[in-house]
Design a protein that fits this description.
The complex is a heterodimer of chains A (280) and B (245). With 280 residues, chain A is an all-alpha fold. Helices cover 85% and strands 0% of the residues of chain A. Chain A contains 13 helices and no strands. In chain A, helix 2 runs parallel beside helix 7, helix 4 packs across helix 10 and helix 7 (129-148) runs antiparallel to helix 10. Chain B has 245 residues and is an alpha/beta fold. Chain B folds into two domains: 2-71 and 151-241, Rossmann fold (3-Layer(aba) Sandwich); 84-149, no CATH class. Chain B contains nine helices and nine strands. A six-stranded mixed sheet of chain B has the order 5-6-7-3-8-9, with helices on both faces. The longest helix of chain B has 16 residues, at 165-180. Classes of the chains: A mainly alpha (280), B alpha/beta (245). Chain A binds chain B through residues 34, 36, 147-152, 154-155, 158-168, 209, 212-218, and chain B through 50-52, 67-73, 75, 78-81, 83-87, 90-91, 93-95, 97-98, 103-105, 127, 129, 131-132, 145, 149, 155. Bound molecules: adenosine-5'-triphosphate (ATP) and magnesium ion (MG). Adenosine-5'-triphosphate (ATP) is lined by residues 13, 18, 36, 38-44, 76 of chain B.
Chain lengths: 280, 245
């Protein structure tokens, strides 16, 4: 069954792209969740949808519009979140729903577009060769950059004030994070859809944080989990003919529940151990 | 030449001054203790020195080739999240980051981290999760991190908070030793007795005014006499004191 699956070219392509995107999303997800920026991913994907709709209406290549718009939006959202005077949550919600509204509005004016539908819910099996190559290049850039900046990203995530006080420039690394997030959203949108990409970013991080206690192990665990969940989601999707994006999100959710249960059981066991200890 | 110079500096939040018109110079090799009541602006002053907030007016200048990445810093309260997954080793190592441009830690940086964990007495906690440490253990880990980035200047904001008396004493000895080796030390403290024993200079902040000078002159100043419970231990004063009685 699985062997048969991999005789199709488009499936192999989907796996390659999907695994790379899952990896990017899970790496950045850890940083975004810890920085309390989880909502930025969600906001950005909506902005991306708006940009794509406008591009489609104007007949411009979608990614060429989406990439710069999302990168600019990422810097903007990061600024807003850093500035404590503005209510960050509300600002992100306003921007993302406005962008979504613009997207839907333009789409209806220019006639219903099937391509837009695929951006909302993803179309991993329909990725063209050129799209796939673009995704692979961007994903490799994101992964390589993440490892180059890994220690610095840890430092500015853990304690930004200390980093600034001792001469690191957190604003630079925050920009790097924003840029990488934007790129991940762009490629993730293509396969997972705007509505589901933030799940790919957030789930692996919070799942591995149930059990892992070191930054490095959280990163490694999220990466592995994300790839496994993608794999499982794809298999389910292929076998039961379910939508790919939704299947991947649900396997991620299942992994989260499993990890969460294990962490609860672990706490219970340590507690009962100490109680027995006291009784003796 | 001075290491850090405050020229007519006023600092505050949102345009409201907390401290006004400070002027003083800190020289290389000094051991400065900053004292004063809660809310007198000690932490605010530290933050301005570190460039975390910019002064409302006046200038703070670094001289003598002092750069931001020569500074070690132990904050009073970090905004570190309760649920952050990080091992003690990872936290301490991040103090080495301000030097070196490599994406990975060098052997030397790793050794620095080990040595400083030893100095802070937390070698055995290396692989523990930072958020699961006790308050005092966390303070020690952050101290080790501060030591990692210290090259010329060590800035400590109430470093003995949460430390047991033995650890506090060890900390004072360690800092004294670093100071002997040429590191300039600036410490905010409420432990005035330790301050007058260890420090070469005292900065005392009050609502409208401040005192800056050597520990000796501080002990003889009105502001110092008011704040201190103990008498000045110097021979002269003891003699006068006995004479007076
Ligand atoms: N982020 C802030 N925004 C506005 N005002 C602040 C802020 N932080 C401190 N303040 C005010 O500045 C004044 C000085 O605060 P600071 O933290 O410098 O005091 P401190 O001397 O360090 O006190 P403590 O001994 O309690 O640590 C206080 O009146 C405080 O209310
Ligand atoms: Mg303070």
């Amino acid at each position: 069954m699985i062997a048969e699956m991999f005789t199709y070219n488009f499936i192999i392509r989907a796996f390659v792209v999907g695994i790379l995107v899952s990896l990017c999303a899970s790496l950045l997800g850890v940083t975004l969740v810890l920085k309390r920026y989880s909502m930025i991913g969600d906001g950005l994907s909506h902005v991306g949808f708006g940009a794509l709709a406008v591009a489609a209406a104007l007949n411009i290549a979608p990614l060429e519009v989406a990439v710069p718009v999302i990168v600019i939006a990422a810097f903007l959202l990061l600024r807003i979140s850093e500035n404590s005077k503005i209510n960050g949550d509300a600002a992100i919600a306003i921007i993302s729903s406005t962008a979504l509204a613009i997207g839907v509005f333009t789409a209806s004016l220019s006639g219903i577009n099937t391509d837009l539908n695929s951006y909302l819910f993803g179309s991993i099996l329909a990725t063209s060769n050129s799209d796939a190559i673009m995704c692979v290049i961007l994903a490799v850039i994101v992964i390589v950059m993440y490892f180059i900046f890994y220690n610095k990203i840890f430092a500015v995530t853990f304690d930004e004030n200390f980093a600034r006080a001792t001469g690191l420039k957190p604003s630079i690394y925050n920009m790097v994070i924003a840029l990488l997030t934007a790129l991940t959203i762009v490629i993730g949108m293509r396969i997972m859809g705007t509505l589901l990409i933030s799940a790919l970013i957030i789930f692996p991080a919070i799942t591995s944080m149930r059990l892992c206690k070191r930054f490095k192990s959280v990163i490694v665990c999220s990466g592995i989990l994300s790839v496994i969940c993608f794999f499982a989601g794809m298999l389910i999707s292929y076998n039961y003919d379910t939508p790919t994006g939704a299947s991947v999100v649900l396997t991620n959710c299942a992994a989260f529940l499993v990890f969460w249960l294990i962490s609860i059981v672990k706490v219970k066991i340590t507690k009962s151990k100490t109680i027995r200890h006291i009784n003796l | 030449m001075s290491l850090i110079k405050f020229a007519d500096v006023s600092i505050g939040y949102e345009g409201v001054n907390v401290l006004s018109n400070l002027s003083f110079e800190i020289n290389a090799g000094d051991y400065l203790c900053i004292v004063g009541e809660n809310g007198s602006g000690k932490t605010t002053l530290m933050k301005s020195m570190l460039g975390l907030i910019s002064p409302i007016s006046g200038t703070i200048s670094f001289n003598d080739g002092l750069k931001q990445n020569h500074i070690g810093y132990l904050p009073q309260q970090s905004k570190i999240q309760k649920d952050f997954p990080a091992s003690v080793y990872e936290v301490v190592l991040s103090g080495c980051l301000s030097k070196g441009f490599l994406p990975f830690y060098s052997k030397f940086q790793k050794k620095t981290a080990f040595d400083n964990m030893q100095k802070a007495g937390i070698s055995d906690l290396k692989n523990k999760c930072f958020r699961e440490l006790s308050g005092g253990q966390q303070q020690r880990a952050l101290l080790a991190r501060a030591l990692c980035s210290t090259e010329k200047l060590l800035i400590l904001d109430e470093p003995i908070t949460g430390l047991d008396p033995i650890a506090a004493q060890e900390l004072y000895t360690l800092i004294k030793q670093l100071n002997h080796n040429g590191i300039t030390v600036i410490m905010v403290t409420h432990d005035v007795n330790a301050a007058i024993v260890n420090a070469s200079h005292i900065l005392h902040l009050e609502k409208e005014t401040y005192f800056y000078g050597t520990t000796h002159t501080y002990l003889h100043s009105d502001i110092g006499k008011r704040f201190l419970v103990t008498d000045c231990p110097c021979d002269n004063c003891q003699k006068n004191h006995r004479g007076g009685v």
